[in-house]
Amino acid sequence: LVFLPPYSPEFNLIEMAFAKVKSVLRRHFNGESHGVSNISDACYTIALDDAVEYFREAGYM
């Protein structure tokens, strides 16, 4: 068991995924008010290759 430092977003994979979701929301859905639908669509932009890259960047692979 390895504990992470108190604040380490570079090791927290969900932070990388949320950063991409927020970027997509800002780029494509700014000002529209279809909240949950837009968030769902933005989440589906995270591909398997993105997830693999998040693990690689965090040093887990």
UniProtKB/TrEMBL annotation:
InterPro entries: RNaseH_sf (IPR036397). The lineage of its organism: Eukaryota, Fungi, Dikarya, Basidiomycota, Agaricomycotina. One of its GO terms (molecular function) is nucleic acid binding. This is Tc1-like transposase DDE domain-containing protein. It comes from Dichomitus squalens (strain LYAD-421).
